[in-house]
Specification:
The protein is of the alpha/beta class. It has 9 helices and 4 strands; from the N terminus they run βααβαααβααβαα. It has a 4-stranded parallel beta sheet. The longest helix has 20 residues, at 66-85.
Amino acid sequence: MEIPRHILIIPDGNRRWAKKKGLAAFLGHGEGAKKLEKILDVALELKIPYFTFWGSSLDNITKRPKEEVDFLFKVFEDNFRKLLENKKIEGEKVRVSALGRWREFFPDSLKKAMNEVIEKTKDNDLYHLTFLMAYSGVDEMREAIKKIANSRAGSKDLEISESLVKQNLWTKELP
């Protein structure tokens, strides 16, 4: 069996699952986080070098009810604190990173937990665990286009190529 080099998980259905169980819709996020832990363990066992998890879209943070968003922030913070203490992360040389606009929208305590994990693992290079947080592909493309436009202003000969676009994406380090 050929092992993939990069897996991206985009969770969907946590709220529907909770509703079917007669629970508040947002409680499904906590169960989804538990499943993610198991999936991450398997990904490490299989030696998959890149694992990306889309934790939240920008819309998840800005357009959902406050109670749900606050719960989601708590789930995130609890799980980033778990990562901070997780011996496998250090032992397996996992670098944790986060992309998106989380620095703008997340509460300070959550940003602190995330930054601590990112800082603690920044020199690890065997495995890469990336979280997309308050992420929007439209935002990523807009920022890449702005960078390219600024570069082009300084050099009219700059050729717009696939590699130039890739170099300016937030996800440029991901295969």
